[in-house]
C-alpha cells in the first residue's frame, strides 16, 4: 500500500483523464480500494466539494467526510451540509471543531484574531484540527483543481503531503469551473446558495467576500491580507 513512508519506493499508479469524470472516478475507486477505511475526505462544502461527495458516494457510500467547523462559517454553509446529509444519509459527516472556543481564543489571543493575525487563526481553527482528524489515517482527499490558482497548478492526483505526513489524493485536478457546474446541474445536486451571489470560493464568513476579480476565483478570500491559502495545502 502506498503510504507516506513508502512514497519513495512504491510505484505510483497513473490514470487516464480523457473520460467522463476526467479521471476522478478512477482515482477514487483506486483510493478506496487501496485505503478502505483509512482515508477521509476533508470537505469545505463548496461546489467542488459537492461534486466530490457525489462521486465518492458512488464508490464508497459510507465514506468519512470531515468538515473543519471553525465556528465562523456562513449560515448558508451549515444549511448546505444539512441538505447533503439528507441526500446522502449513509455518508459519515464529522464536524471537527478546534480545541479553543471562539471565546477562549479571544481571551488568549485577542478579539477577532482573523483581523490581526489570520495565519494564526487558520492554524488554530483549521490546520491543527485537520492534523488531529488525520491522526492514524494514511490518506486524505482534497478537492483542489489546477485551474484554481497558480499555487495549485502543479497538483497531481496522488501527492506526498509533508505537512500532514500522509498521502493527499486530488481527483479533480483536471476539472474546470465549467466542468464542475455542468456536473452539478446535470445531477441536480444541492449547493451553497452563496455561489449564486458572487462567491465562487467560500470559507469563513469574516474572511470571505464576493470575488473581486471574476477571473480569479479566490480573489474574495482574505482580502487585504496578502493571503490566498488557509495553510492546509502549504508545506
Ligand atoms: Fe480564522 Fe479566517 Fe482562517 Fe477562518 S479563514 S480560520 S476566520 S483566519
TrEMBL record:
<protein>
    <recommendedName>
        <fullName>Adenosine 5'-phosphosulfate reductase</fullName>
        <ecNumber>1.8.4.10</ecNumber>
    </recommendedName>
</protein>
<keyword id="KW-0963">Cytoplasm</keyword>
<feature type="domain" description="Phosphoadenosine phosphosulphate reductase">
    <location>
        <begin position="39"/>
        <end position="210"/>
    </location>
</feature>
<feature type="binding site">
    <location>
        <position position="207"/>
    </location>
    <ligand>
        <name>[4Fe-4S] cluster</name>
    </ligand>
</feature>
<feature type="binding site">
    <location>
        <position position="204"/>
    </location>
    <ligand>
        <name>[4Fe-4S] cluster</name>
    </ligand>
</feature>
<dbReference type="Pfam" id="PF01507">
    <property type="entry name" value="PAPS_reduct"/>
</dbReference>
<dbReference type="InterPro" id="IPR014729">
    <property type="entry name" value="Rossmann-like_a/b/a_fold"/>
</dbReference>
<keyword id="KW-0411">Iron-sulfur</keyword>
<dbReference type="InterPro" id="IPR002500">
    <property type="entry name" value="PAPS_reduct_dom"/>
</dbReference>
<dbReference type="GO" id="GO:0004604">
    <property type="term" value="F:phosphoadenylyl-sulfate reductase (thioredoxin) activity"/>
</dbReference>
<dbReference type="GO" id="GO:0046872">
    <property type="term" value="F:metal ion binding"/>
</dbReference>
<feature type="binding site">
    <location>
        <position position="122"/>
    </location>
    <ligand>
        <name>[4Fe-4S] cluster</name>
    </ligand>
</feature>
<keyword id="KW-0560">Oxidoreductase</keyword>
<dbReference type="GO" id="GO:0019344">
    <property type="term" value="P:cysteine biosynthetic process"/>
</dbReference>
<comment type="pathway">
    <text>Sulfur metabolism; hydrogen sulfide biosynthesis; sulfite from sulfate.</text>
</comment>
<dbReference type="GO" id="GO:0051539">
    <property type="term" value="F:4 iron, 4 sulfur cluster binding"/>
</dbReference>
<dbReference type="GO" id="GO:0019379">
    <property type="term" value="P:sulfate assimilation, phosphoadenylyl sulfate reduction by phosphoadenylyl-sulfate reductase (thioredoxin)"/>
</dbReference>
<feature type="active site" description="Nucleophile; cysteine thiosulfonate intermediate">
    <location>
        <position position="230"/>
    </location>
</feature>
<dbReference type="InterPro" id="IPR004511">
    <property type="entry name" value="PAPS/APS_Rdtase"/>
</dbReference>
<dbReference type="InterPro" id="IPR011798">
    <property type="entry name" value="APS_reductase"/>
</dbReference>
<keyword id="KW-0408">Iron</keyword>
<dbReference type="GO" id="GO:0070814">
    <property type="term" value="P:hydrogen sulfide biosynthetic process"/>
</dbReference>
<comment type="similarity">
    <text>Belongs to the PAPS reductase family. CysH subfamily.</text>
</comment>
<keyword id="KW-0479">Metal-binding</keyword>
<dbReference type="GO" id="GO:0043866">
    <property type="term" value="F:adenylyl-sulfate reductase (thioredoxin) activity"/>
</dbReference>
<comment type="function">
    <text>Catalyzes the formation of sulfite from adenosine 5'-phosphosulfate (APS) using thioredoxin as an electron donor.</text>
</comment>
<feature type="binding site">
    <location>
        <position position="121"/>
    </location>
    <ligand>
        <name>[4Fe-4S] cluster</name>
    </ligand>
</feature>
<dbReference type="GO" id="GO:0005737">
    <property type="term" value="C:cytoplasm"/>
</dbReference>
Amino acid at each position: 500500500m502506498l503510504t507516506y513512508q513508502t512514497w519513495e519506493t512504491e510505484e505510483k499508479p497513473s490514470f487516464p483523464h480523457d473520460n467522463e469524470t476526467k479521471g476522478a472516478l478512477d482515482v477514487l475507486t483506486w483510493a478506496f480500494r487501496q485505503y478502505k477505511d483509512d482515508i477521509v475526505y476533508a470537505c469545505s462544502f463548496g461546489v467542488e466539494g459537492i461534486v466530490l461527495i457525489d462521486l465518492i458516494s458512488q464508490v464508497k457510500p459510507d465514506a468519512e467526510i470531515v468538515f473543519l467547523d471553525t465556528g465562523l462559517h456562513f449560515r448558508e454553509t451549515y444549511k448546505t451540509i444539512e441538505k447533503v446529509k439528507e441526500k446522502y444519509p449513509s455518508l459519515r459527516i464529522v464536524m471537527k471543531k478546534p480545541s479553543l472556543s471562539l471565546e477562549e481564543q479571544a481571551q488568549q489571543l485577542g478579539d477577532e484574531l482573523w483581523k490581526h493575525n489570520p495565519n494564526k487563526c487558520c492554524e488554530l481553527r483549521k490546520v491543527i484540527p485537520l492534523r488531529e482528524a488525520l491522526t492514524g489515517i494514511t490518506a486524505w482527499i482534497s478537492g483542489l483543481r489546477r485551474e484554481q490558482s497558480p499555487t495549485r497548478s502543479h497538483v497531481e492526483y496522488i501527492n506526498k503531503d509533508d505537512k500532514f505526513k500522509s498521502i493527499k489524493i486530488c481527483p479533480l485536478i483536471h476539472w474546470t469551473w465549467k466542468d464542475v457546474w455542468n456536473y452539478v446541474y446535470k445531477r441536480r445536486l444541492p449547493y451553497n446558495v452563496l455561489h449564486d451571489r458572487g462567491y465562487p470560493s467560500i470559507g469563513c464568513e469574516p474572511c470571505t467576500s464576493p470575488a473581486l476579480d471574476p477571473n480569479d476565483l479566490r480573489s474574495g478570500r482574505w482580502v487585504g491580507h496578502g493571503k490566498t491559502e488557509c495553510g492546509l495545502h502549504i508545506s
